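Example complex used in Figure S2.
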Amino acid sequence: MNTKRYDRQIALHEIGIAGQQKLADAKVLVIGAGGLGCPVLQNLALAGVGYIGIVDGDVVEETNLHRQFLYTKEDCWQHKAIVASEAILKQNPEVKVIPYAVHFTNSNAFEIVSDYQIIVDCTDNLATRYLINDVALVKEIPMVYASIHKFEGQLSVLNYKNGPSYRCLFPENEDFHKIDNCADLGVLGVLPNVLGAMQANEILKIILGIGTVLKSKLLLYNGLDNDVQAIDFQKNEAEIIKGTQRGLAILNAESIIGIESLSSSDFFAAIQNENNLVIDIREQYEEPKLAIENYKAVPLGQLDDFLKDIDKKQKIMLFCQNGSRSKLASDYLQKNGFTNVFHLDKGIEALQKITS
Amino acid sequence: MTITVKYFGVVADITQKKEEQLHFESDAVSLNSVQSKLEQIYSEIKITKYSFAINHSMTKGDLIVNDNDEIALLPAFSGG
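Predicted assembly (436 residues):
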């Protein structure tokens, strides 16, 4: 670890070298790379959070640019997850960033969350928020929540150390669609930046184990008149049970989808066969590379185009960094008629262990 | 008695104000009767979902509201 970069935060006695190492070891998943996601991602990367996942299925649009500062006009119509990962890696190349350029849905939620320790809710819709809540309940990991409405923001840390969940705050809201988003309501760019920075602050405190985490409290911020207040709220056991049951139902449905995943040793053996089409679906900049020659490098976003002339019966072996994107891609290919798709369980990171 | 009612998010959009004071004849009323009074003034909040807080603490079920209490109407936010 390059400590010079972090010298000014290591100087804080609450952090020190030990704290910086905790940040380097932390795995945080940020869902939504928009107004809230940009400041969260930038702050986590700059602070040295070692492993950052970014989930967003949307592309950059010009109307995002007044507030989503990781993007430029040249990035329009590119996937936010990819552009954001490149932007924060440029600011701190010492962290690992995993982009998931897909929407967070029932069918991929648990696969994506896998072994992340904290989920950050930067989404712009209630359905995804309840899904994140229910997944976090089943995985027993905290969810750092923020959301905005015009000049107002809400912030809370949910499912943290046996604390209340989002459903305890707002029970049974998911069928309710009369809540508009920024597109319809308008938003001053500074507001999500403030709330996103506050989310990042809670995340760093959770990782470092310092300060008082915003558990059992809903912080309300009004940017127009600087009115800030905290509302206390309690755990509602019936809502915890409801969320957990819904989360478990999603988990069970997800595991029924039969994806052929290969262990590192089976995969290593299979890629020696030149008849198998081996594809690295990571982005170009991701390391390490596979130490064989007969494979293709096709980033996830270009996979569709690459496979359009490939025989649906061709044996295809996919791999990525940790196995989560390759599983998503295998699932997608199977749904599109490919019958002989395999992927490397736990990704090239696991393969390195058996080949080095 | 007099209570202060604070509005947030879509509820404030409906009431077109951040807060106001409401007056009642009796010294204590139920939260349900406060809600009924608010729905008479602002019919649109009948079709809006929100949680209640009394004196900065989220409530569950019907409670008694006393003189000088502060009630907050807190809807979910969805923007990100």
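The two ends of chain A are 22 Å apart (CA to CA). The CA atoms of residues 268 and 355 of chain A lie 9 Å apart.
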